[in-house]
Amino acid sequence: MDYLLQNPAIVFELLLQHLLLVSVALTLALALSLPLSVFIAASSRWTTAVLGVLSVVYTIPSIALIILLIPLTGLNAWSVIIALILYAQVILTRNNVAALRGIDPAIVEAARGMGMNRWQMWWRVQLPLALPVMLAGVRLAAIVTIGIATIGAKFNGGGLGRLLFDGIAQTGRYDKIWAGAIAVAALALLTNLAFVTLEHYFGPARKIRGSL
Amino acid sequence: MALLVFQHVAKTFPQSAYAAVRDCTFEVAAGQFVTLLGPSGCGKTTLLKMVNRLVEPSAGAIFLNGVNIRALNVTALRRQIGYVIQQIGLFPHLTVAQNIAVVPELRGWKKPRIDARVDELLELVKLAPAYFRARYPAQLSGGQQQRVGLARALAADPDLLLMDEPFGAIDAITRASLQDEMLRLKNSIHKTILFVTHDVEEALRLADKIVVLRAGEIVQYDTPYNILTQPKNEFVRALVGANDMLRQLSLVRVATVMQPLPENFADAGAPTLSADENLREALSKILASGATMLVVTRQAEPVGVVRLEQIRALSRER
């Protein structure tokens, strides 16, 4: 705790690095996952195949995955970001597909029968209805990504993991380990809270949806 | 003039050994209420969905107002046809008013016009606008939801309304009141309606004409009265004949049975009844008055006659 209070500038800078890693990774992961989910949700065969492959990726330990990426993208933050994208992809895609498939087919048919084109159906019907479930996936992915991103420090990725790894490397610096652990945990908890608030705002509670 | 024409329409779904619809040819005149009646799997819903191209026919053609619907832009076509489905399919994240406004918005109406239209339609389906506008679908009962579904389908004032078992999932009492509502609306809005049902009573009650379907083929296309009195074959007889006669009399509307006024008709004090009454009412009036002929009126104007022998024809056939 002392370290946190005595070195706010250092911790804050590492926190910003951490947030940058996580938000770049999450944004890119979402940008990939949304079209992928829409594409595969229409077919069970594609869903099973794509989610199967992604699940295999998810079982690779993070250190191993980043090491595998280093020959391709170098010893830098990008290797870390790509690994984070791959992990987030599993969570996001699985959730997005579930969200899209959870929409009552009658609603989609009504939208089609009323003369909405695909784009209008997506913006006016599918996205708003899937959003609460999708947000839950983004929240989970954000938390998992915040955790895994600490490993990134080992590979020149920066972030709060630096405190942990420095603390381990320098004998007797438990204060750094504590500072890192507390900061990461606090970040994860706050992120969770922010998304829960967001879900609540877009969620069913506000719009009484009983039958869904 | 025929608003809707089916010419040798057929549909075989991929991965299906037999045709869902085969060689259907019939016409629906403007302003008519036509029901597609038949058991599950007879192709009635498939036939309906070919009109707004949710299903594309494998053969044949459908003409709306004389234009082959294949030549029309598919979303533009759907926006000019009202569509009501059994599962209702209201958008749960939109209010009642927003649900009704969907097609007018798609067609680019201005906001004041949409607002006025929403109120008008809510009045039409007997839901007080002040109360219901801002409700969400989950706050309504099934019957109220389908009233909104109907209002939504009517929103952009389509000539043609497609209804796919719209009251199928609604309890019997509410269903009867919605059917009454349909009859009332039919007279006030002058729409052509194609209505799918497997419920014989519903078909007899609502339809001007009934298309009886079996295994994708049209068995008979006629008025409720003719279908009851002259069923084309055993299948139709079995389909409509299971109910008792008085019950059926109570379903068939005088309007679908009446004959033209005789020449040099003079209102000689014959008992009258409204065209929206049913044959059971007609029979009790005949029994009570001793007359053999009733004058049928619309807004107090004589428009036709119904005779005792027409009612008797219904019972003779059994």
Description:
The complex is a heterodimer of chains A (212) and B (318). Chain A is an all-alpha fold and 212 residues long. Chain A has one domain: Orthogonal Bundle (MetI-like fold). Chain A contains nine helices and no strands. The longest helix of chain A has 34 residues. Chain B is an alpha/beta fold and 318 residues long. Chain B has 13 helices and 13 strands. At the A-B interface, α6 and α7 of A face α2 and α3 of B.
Write a concise keyword list for the protein shown above.
heterodimer, A: about 210 residues, mainly alpha, MetI-like fold, elongated, B: alpha/beta, four-stranded antiparallel β-sheet, 13 helices, 13 strands, about 40% helix
Largest sheet of chain B: 6 strands, mixed
- Topology, number of strands of chain B: 13
Percent helix among the residues of chain A? over 70%
CATH class of chain A: Mainly Alpha
Average predicted confidence as pLDDT of chain A: 88
Q: Which CATH-level-2 architecture of chain A?
A: Orthogonal Bundle
Oligomer: heterodimer
Topology readout:
The complex is a heterodimer of chains A (212) and B (318).
Chain A lengths: L1 H5 L1 H34 L2 H16 L2 H12 L3 H25 L3 H9 L4 H32 L11 H9 L4 H29 L10
Helix pairs in contact in A: 2-3, 2-5, 2-7, 3-5, 4-5, 5-7, 6-7, 7-9, 8-9
Chain B lengths: L1 E10 L9 E9 L3 E5 L6 H6 L9 E6 L2 E2 L5 H6 L1 E5 L10 H11 L4 H14 L4 H4 L9 H13 L5 E5 L7 H18 L2 E6 L2 H7 L2 E6 L2 E6 L1 H6 L4 H8 L3 H7 L20 E3 L4 H11 L3 E6 L2 E7 H9 L2
Parallel strand pairs in B: 3-8, 3-9, 6-7, 7-8, 11-12
Antiparallel strand pairs in B: 1-2, 1-4, 4-5, 9-10, 12-13
Helix pairs in contact in B: 3-4, 3-6, 4-6, 11-12
